Amino acid sequence: MKETILKKSGEIFLKLGFKSVTMDDIANELGISKKTIYKYFKNKAELVDQATEYMHKIIHTEALRIYNLGHNAIKENFEVNKIFKDFMQNSDDSPVYQLQKYYPETYKKIMGQEFFMFQDCLSKNLEKGIREGLFRKNINVEQVMKFYFTLIMSVHDSNLYTFNKNTINKLEISAIEYHTRAIATEKGIKELKKQLAKINNN
To answer: Rounded CA gap, 63 and 115, in Å?
Structure first.
């Protein structure tokens, strides 16, 4: 039951926001009493903390699956982005921003885990791109990895952007394009244009 609550809570928080969703809302969605939720979580803050970590691990597992499919490095980044789009497709605001504003302690913990969990994947992606001739050989892998992570996270800063249902994913695509153009070879630019064309045709 605890895992069921975590999964449903995570989905609702991503869809409706961390602030507006109440324990009553979650209980009603699950068809259980609020007392059952409090059996596993002492308050909403604890539920937010654990549900966020639960969803974060699911997203990370999906990302790892993509990284293991054998796509070229540039296509790989676009495919991983689709995972985040699918999870946040019903959100009118940035879940990351809401977490930062209303649950800063959970935000700090998740962001620390985020970089730690993805740094290996990001560095391997860059090294793969170099081997494939898509990225330049002279790039500083560690530095580029940190730049890219910071760039992607900045997409969710509402101090910089006004969000609507499509803003977040468009900004993330722009961030991938910006990142790729900064380090790509001519071969890499061709692959980038190919991936962007697929998106524009959908």
So the answer is: 13
Q: Give me the tens of pLDDT residue by residue for the chain, a chain 202 residues long.
A: 999 999 999 989 888 888 889 999 999 999 999 999 999 999 999 999 999 999 988 888 888 899 889 999 999 999 998 887 766 554 555 677 778 889 999 988 887 777 777 788 899 999 999 999 999 999 999 999 999 988 887 776 655 555 555 566 788 899 999 999 999 999 999 999 999 999 888 6
Tokens 């394009």, residue located: 177
Given a contact cutoff of 8 angstroms between Cβ atoms, the answer to whether 149 and 172 are in contact is no
Domain-wise residue ranges, the chain: 57-201
Beta-carbon contacts of residue 176 (< 8 Å; ≥ 6 apart): 77, 78, 81
pTM strictly above 0.70: yes
Q: How far apart are CA 186 and CA 46, in angstroms?
A: 49
Output phi, psi for 69, to 5 deg.
-85, -10
Q: How many whole angstroms separate alpha carbon 187 and alpha carbon 111?
A: 33
Residue 59, both tokens: 């997203």
CATH number of 57-201: 1.10.357
